[in-house]
Every structure is written in structure tokens, then in C-alpha cells.
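Hi team,

Filling in the usual template for the complex we talked about on Friday. All components are listed, including any nucleic acid strands or ligand strings, so the model treats them as one assembly.

SUBMITTER: L.P.
PURPOSE: interface mapping
COMPONENTS: four
RESIDUES: 310
SEQUENCES:
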Amino acid sequence: MVEIDGFDRKILAQLQEDASRTNQQVGERIGLSASQVSRRRQRLEEAGVVRRYRADIDPAAVGLAVVAFVGVALNAHSRQNARRFRDLVRSLPEVQEAHVLTGDMDYMLKVVVADLAGLSVFINDELLPHDAVRNVRSSIAMETLKDDNRLPFAI
Amino acid sequence: MVEIDGFDRKILAQLQEDASRTNQQVGERIGLSASQVSRRRQRLEEAGVVRRYRADIDPAAVGLAVVAFVGVALNAHSRQNARRFRDLVRSLPEVQEAHVLTGDMDYMLKVVVADLAGLSVFINDELLPHDAVRNVRSSIAMETLKDDNRLPFAI
DNA sequence: AGTGAAAAACAATGGCG
DNA sequence: CGCCATTGTTTTTCACT
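RESULT (copied from the run log):
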């Protein structure tokens, strides 16, 4: 793992907040020259600390109205089943996030679809037919209070 | 809501994937000139379709090793309590996402902290003392299979 | 709605203290 | 690490279709 000092953390905090800031703007806010910000950014990008830059798009604007959390229990805890299930969820575009959880449900998926019909299709046609899947329990997000995905790292 | 045509969707798809692509590069991939990509981007940004640009940072690189999903039930379903709880979760930096859910738990939080001790502090010192909170049930992500937060919009 | 070229802004490097 | 200068890119605007 790469060394990260206070300046690096400040740069990361700035870019997490708004990646369209120029090196000059970032530098002004943290007391560093633009050229140094440029060099540090390159280093952080090459080291994989910055994984990528992305545009955060309003889901409603592209016709996606339903966010759901889907808990999935697998049939048997065989290595084979688990691997096939992982390949499945990674390949499904509706799945924004997939985590292996402690507790009664094996997996937790965050799913985004256009509407409730889309959620039904996703569960019944994509998830349940997979024979590693034993059962599925979904909760729909009626409202999203916060969705910024900022990491709370100390600066 | 703003009109979004096929070109706009293609631009959004490109920038969601990698926001560091230049207008020229985006244009080449979708068959449009850089100047048109620039104009459409500005329109999409001003309309709020692109909400922001952000750097996606590796949590482990900044010392954040624990992701947990925390279900929260409130004491009473008073409007007052709900509002105060919303203000709380919005203000807590450890909370990446907060959703109002259907089902038995009122709220679902996605929380990122440094370690299990940090999760304990978060739950016991930040969440439970709030008198709107009745009970809390947390599941820790032992492994994250997918975490790209890409929207699956048709292009 | 689109292209292409010019102007302005920016990123990335290298050299020096 | 700051500062400065240079070079190549990129964005943005403008004239034109």
C-alpha cells in the first residue's frame, strides 16, 4: 500500500467532493501549487487509490425510479455455488452493489430498476431461476435520504 | 424534466463509466463532434441530470476497512421523530446511504468505518443515544463483490 | 442539430532554488 | 516542496451549414 500524507488526503477529499475541480483550484484550497497537485494526483491514480472518475447521474432522469435491497440466501454453501452466484451478480447490470453479509442472509444486493414490474422481472427471471439461489427477500426504498457515497476519511 | 435523446444517453453512459474521457474521446465513440459533446454535457449538467463528478477512492487506502448495513427502527412514527432522524443521518459522515424502506425496518443505512471498534462507536454513541431510535440491527459486509454504482439505463 | 477552426484554459514536465 | 516556463491537450465559443 502506498504512503498517503496529509496533502494527499486533502486532495482526495477535494476530488471525492468534486472531481471537476482543476489542479489549480484544488491547490488553492489546500495550500499547494497546481504542479504539485498534478504530480500527487498522478501518483494516487497509478497506485489505485483513486480507482476511477465517474459522473453521478440522476436515476430519475434516465427513467430509473426504483431502488431495492435484495437479500439472497444460497442453497448450499458449496464453493461451486458461491462462485457461480458471484459471476451472476457481477454480470447483472441492475445490481449496483453486492456484498457478502454476516447474519441470516448470505448476500445483500442493491438493485436499481425502472419500476416495480422491472423489479419483479429481475427477481423472477434473473435471480430465482439460478439454482444456487434458495430464497430472496426484497425491500424497496420508498425514499432516499442520502446517497452520496462519500468516504468519511479524516483529513 | 429535461428531454434526453439517444446521443445524450450515450454521453451519460460514457461519463458514468469514466468521467476523465475527453469530449473528443466521447465523441469518437458515439459519432459526434467534440463541440457537440461539450454543449450537450453543459446542458445535462445544468439540468441536474449529471449531479456531480467524483473520484472513486479505494476505502482500504484511506484506512476504511468496514462496510456495514444498519437497519434502524424508530420509536414512534411521528413526523417530528422522523424529521429529526433524517437530519441526524444526513449529518453523519459515516453514513454513505440512507433509505426509507418497506418492511420491518424503517431505515437502512450503509455505513463505512475504519474498523469494528469504529462501528461500535458509531452505533452506540451516534445512533442509539438519539431518542427517536428504538432499535438497530447491523450486518457487516465480509466481502464486497461489486460496488460500481453504475445505473443500468438503456442506451 | 450538426461540423470545423480559433481562442482560452488547463495539465503535465522539466529546471531551479 | 514552491515557482516558473514550456509544450501539448482540452474545452469552449464562433462562424457556418
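MY TAKE: Chain A has a mean pLDDT of 95. Chain A touches chain B through 65 residues (CB under 8 Å).

Thanks, L.
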